[in-house]
Task: structure prediction
Amino acid sequence: GASKRHRVPRRVPQHARARKMSASQPKKTSNAGVIVVAVVSSALTAAVGLLAKPFARTQTADSPPPVTASPKTKSRKSIVRKLYREVWNNFDLSSAEKSAEKYVSEDHVLIDPSNPNPVPGTEAYMESVRGNREALPDYVITIDDLIEEGSKVVAQLSFKASLNEREARWTGTCVMEFEEKEIVRTWINTDAMSALIQLGLMTDLVNDGNVKLRPVTQALMGRSEAHPETVLTGKDWLQYFEEVHESWERNSTADSENAAALKHDSNTGLDVVV
Result:
């Protein structure tokens, strides 16, 4: 019979197989490129954000917004100024009462430990105003300074009045607490004893009275010298203090120069041991 031929499998070149496999598989090059671009873009965005944050903080720290007083702060200080101008320094008590009704609450209370039974209300407040005006007709209060903190305004005050041709000047501090635009509580502390001494209504207890009690009197009064004939307040006192301070400095310099001169003998030219 006819002999059977053994078919030898045909060898396909390796490079041809590679081309065939490459042609049979879907291309992924474009998707991979999109993914790479997206990752790089995301990384750049994050990096820019991290760099921008410290820069923004630095800008904020270096250039803070200007600090301005709030409208409430301005209005409260303005109310205090109007209170002393239109109520306490007003010679027309009827007009003063109308102004007090605008600035002082009906629930107002004067907190004074020496008065155990304070009467609340605007009318009670006006009783103090009338009492001062009737007793001392030329009574005047000057605001030296105003400080605002929270719901309170502190007034540094200077007082001036005369009686029987004697004039008195003294100082005081008043703390006023607000609710909205009305004063609801007041704390007042004045150097009334100084006013009484200047007006001749009491003697100066520092160097008078029981000798054994003088240390106590001097400690409470804060001085051991007699009360001055003329009392300075506000800017006048500050100017006086500056002049006194300059005098102290001049005297101190002169004392130092004199002490240095004592250490040198002008006759012999030799230094002297002191």
Q: What stands out?
A: The first strand starts at residue 104 and ends at 111.
